[in-house]
C-alpha cells in the first residue's frame, strides 16, 4: 500500500481542519479494508484507485468501523478530547453520506394501518421493543418511521426469539415427522410448507402477522403476461423464467404426492401451485438470515421487522445475530434517523433484477450492484512470464461506466480484470500498456469486440 501504510497521529490540540485530514487518511484505509468482491473487481489492481469513494455500502462500513475503533480506544484509555472530536467528525461524515443518498418517500396519511398497529401491539405484549411506527409510503407501500430522534448505536427494534418464525417452530407440528423423511427436504422448504397451512389457522399464535400479509406480493415471480411481454429479450425475463421453472419443479416433486399420502396434514385446497408461489414470495421478500447462539445460520420471518424497506444507504446495516444475553435480535442504527423519518434496512448487496424478481421493487437510486455477467471463454496461458494480479479472476462482468473513476485510454470506464483478460488473449506476454502501434492495434480489436458484445445486452444496459 506504499505511502498509505504510515501511521496517523492525532494531536490533542488538533484543529477542525487537521481532524478532517486525519479522518480522511483513516477513512482511505478503512475503505480498502471493507471492500467486497465486486468492489475489488471493478477497482482493479492499483490500490490508489480504491482509497476514494467506492459505494455507499463501502463508505458506511468504513465509517462505522472507524467509530467502532474510536469506541474501543476510548474504552481502553481515558477518552481524550481529540478522540471525542474525531468521533464527531466521523458522525458528521455519516450524516452527510445519508443526505447525499437520501430517498424521499411521502407518507400517505389517508391509508389505514389498523392491522399493522394491532400486530405492533401484539409484539409489544410479547416483549418486542420498538422505536418505530408503521406507516404507508407513496410508491413503496408499508414502511417504518422513527417515533423519536434516534442516534447511531440506538436500538430501533428488538425482537425476542419467542416471536421469530424459524425452523425450530416446525418441529412442534405434525408435518415435521412426515417432511423429515422426504429426501432432500430443507429447513427452508419445511417452513414454506408450514406457512401455507398456518396462514389458514384461526388459532395460530401468528394470526395477526399473517393477517397483515398481502394476498398478492407483486414480485417478478407473479408478473402477468403484459409485464412478461414487455420484458421480452431481456436478462431480467430470463432470470424470472429460470426462477419460476425451479420453483415449479420443486412443487411438482412434492405435490400432489404429499396431499395424496397425508390429506389430513396437507389438505389439497391449501397446497395448490398458486399458494405455493405465494409462500415462496413471502419467504423470498420477507425472510432474514440470522446467526443463532449455536453458530447456525437460519432463515427466519421476523414479524414487524419485515415492514422495514430497503435503501442504498440504510440506517440499519448490522442485525443478523442473536444477542445471547437477551435471547433477542437487535436492530441498531448505523446512521441517525430523525423523528418522522423513514427508517431503512439493508436487505443486502443485490442487483436491481434480483430485487425486482424476489422482492418486487426497484431501487430509487443508482445501484452499484447492477452488473451483467459476461460469457468469455479465454484459455489460460500458463507459460506467461508476467502474471498480473487481475489475471486471477476467472469470471467477468460489466456495469454502468458512470460508476467508474477512469474513462481514459486503456480504461474506458470498464473493469481492469476484463480488459486484462481480453488483452492477454491476444498478447500473452504483454508487459505494459503504452502508446505503441502494437498496443493501439490490440485496443482497437478489443473495443470492436466489446461493441459487438454490448449490442447483445443493449436492452438491459440502457438506463431508464
Question: Can you characterise this structure?
Answer:
This protein has 464 residues and is an alpha+beta fold. It has 17 helices and 10 strands.
Summarize it.
The protein is α+β, with helices and mostly antiparallel strands and 464 residues long. The protein has helices spanning 16-33, 37-43, 56-76, 81-100, 114-125, 167-170, 174-179, 187-198, 207-212, 225-230, 235-254, 257-261, 273-286, 352-358, 416-426, 437-455, 458-461; strands at residues 129-130, 132-137, 141-146, 155-160, 287-291, 297-301, 322-323, 328-332, 371-374, 396-399.
Q: Which tags fit this structure?
A:
two-stranded antiparallel ribbon, single chain, alpha+beta, 464 residues
How does the SSE layout of this entry go?
Blueprint: H1 16-33, H2 37-43, H3 56-76, H4 81-100, H5 114-125, E1 129-130, E2 132-137, E3 141-146, E4 155-160, H6 167-170, H7 174-179, H8 187-198, H9 207-212, H10 225-230, H11 235-254, H12 257-261, H13 273-286, E5 287-291, E6 297-301, E7 322-323, E8 328-332, H14 352-358, E9 371-374, E10 396-399, H15 416-426, H16 437-455, H17 458-461
Helix pairs in contact: 1-3, 1-4, 3-4, 8-13
The helix tally amounts to: 17
Strand order of the largest sheet: 1-4-8-7
Distance between the termini: 39 Å
Question: Could you say which structural class the secondary elements and strand pairing correspond to?
Answer: alpha+beta
Gyration radius, rounded: 26 Å
Helix content: 40-55%
Strand content: 5-15%
Number of strands: 10
User: Could you give the order of the helices and strands?
Assistant: HHHHHEEEEHHHHHHHHEEEEHEEHHH
Mean pLDDT: 89
Low-confidence parts: 379-387, 459-464
- Overall shape: it is globular
Q: Please summarize the sheet with the most strands.
A: 4 strands, antiparallel
Protein name: SET domain-containing protein
Organism: Anisodus tanguticus
GO molecular function: protein-lysine N-methyltransferase activity
InterPro entries: SET_dom, SET_dom_sf, SETD3_SETD6_MTase
Amino acid at each position: 500500500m506504499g505511502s498509505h501504510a504510515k501511521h496517523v497521529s492525532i494531536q490533542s490540540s488538533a484543529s477542525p481542519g487537521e481532524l478532517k485530514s486525519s479522518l480522511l487518511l483513516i477513512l482511505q484505509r478503512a475503505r480498502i479494508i471493507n471492500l467486497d468482491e465486486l468492489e475489488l473487481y471493478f477497482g482493479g489492481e492499483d490500490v490508489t484507485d480504491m482509497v476514494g469513494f467506492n459505494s455507499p455500502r463501502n463508505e458506511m462500513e468504513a465509517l462505522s468501523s472507524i467509530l467502532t475503533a474510536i469506541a474501543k480506544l476510548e474504552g481502553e484509555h481515558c477518552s481524550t478530547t481529540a478522540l471525542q472530536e474525531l468521533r464527531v467528525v466521523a458522525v458528521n461524515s455519516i450524516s452527510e453520506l445519508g443526505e447525499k443518498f437520501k430517498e424521499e418517500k411521502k407518507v400517505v396519511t389517508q391509508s389505514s394501518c389498523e392491522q399493522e398497529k394491532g400486530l405492533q401491539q401484539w409484539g409489544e405484549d410479547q416483549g418486542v421493543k420498538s422505536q418505530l411506527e408503521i406507516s404507508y409510503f407513496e410508491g413503496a407501500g408499508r414502511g417504518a418511521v422513527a417515533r423519536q430522534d434516534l442516534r447511531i448505536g440506538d436500538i430501533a427494534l428488538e425482537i425476542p426469539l419467542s416471536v421469530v418464525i424459524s425452523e425450530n417452530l416446525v418441529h412442534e407440528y405434525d408435518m415435521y415427522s412426515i417432511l423429515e423423511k422426504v429426501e432432500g427436504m430443507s429447513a427452508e422448504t419445511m417452513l414454506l410448507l408450514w406457512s401455507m397451512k398456518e396462514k389458514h389457522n384461526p388459532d395460530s399464535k401468528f394470526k395477526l402477522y399473517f393477517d397483515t400479509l398481502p394476498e398478492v406480493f407483486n414480485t417478478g415471480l407473479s408478473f402477468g403476461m403484459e409485464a412478461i411481454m414487455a420484458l421480452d429479450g431481456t436478462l431480467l425475463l430470463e432470470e424470472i423464467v429460470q426462477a419460476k421453472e425451479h420453483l415449479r419443479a420443486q412443487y411438482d416433486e412434492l405435490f400432489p404426492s404429499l396431499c395424496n399420502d397425508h390429506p389430513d396434514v396437507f389438505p389439497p385446497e391449501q397446497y395448490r401451485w398458486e399458494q405455493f408461489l405465494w409462500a415462496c414470495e413471502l419467504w423470498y421478500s420477507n425472510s432474514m438470515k440470522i446467526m443463532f447462539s449455536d453458530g447456525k445460520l437460519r432463515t427466519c420471518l421476523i414479524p414487524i421487522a419485515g415492514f422495514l424497506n430497503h435503501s442504498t444507504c440504510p440506517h440499519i446495516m448490522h442485525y443478523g445475530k442473536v444477542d445471547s444475553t437477551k435471547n433477542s435480535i437487535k436492530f441498531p442504527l448505523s446512521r441517525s434517523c430523525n423523528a418522522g423519518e423513514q427508517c431503512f434496512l439493508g436487505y443486502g448487496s443485490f442487483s436491481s433484477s434480483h430485487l425486482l424478481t424476489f422482492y418486487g421493487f426497484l431501487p430509487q437510486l443508482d445501484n452499484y450492484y447492477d452488473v451483467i455477467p459476461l460469457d468469455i471463454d479465454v484459455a489460460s496461458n500458463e507459460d506467461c512470464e508476467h502474471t498480473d494480479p487481475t489475471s486471477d479472476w476467472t469470471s467477468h462482468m460489466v456495469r454502468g461506466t458512470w460508476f467508474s473513476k477512469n474513462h481514459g485510454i486503456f480504461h474506458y470506464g470498464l473493469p481492469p480484470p476484463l480488459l486484462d483478460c481480453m488483452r492477454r488473449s491476444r498478447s500473452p506476454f504483454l508487459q505494459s500498456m503504452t502508446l505503441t502501434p502494437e498496443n493501439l492495434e490490440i485496443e482497437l480489436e478489443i473495443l470492436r469486440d466489446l461493441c459487438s458484445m454490448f449490442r447483445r445486452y443493449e436492452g438491459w444496459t440502457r438506463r431508464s
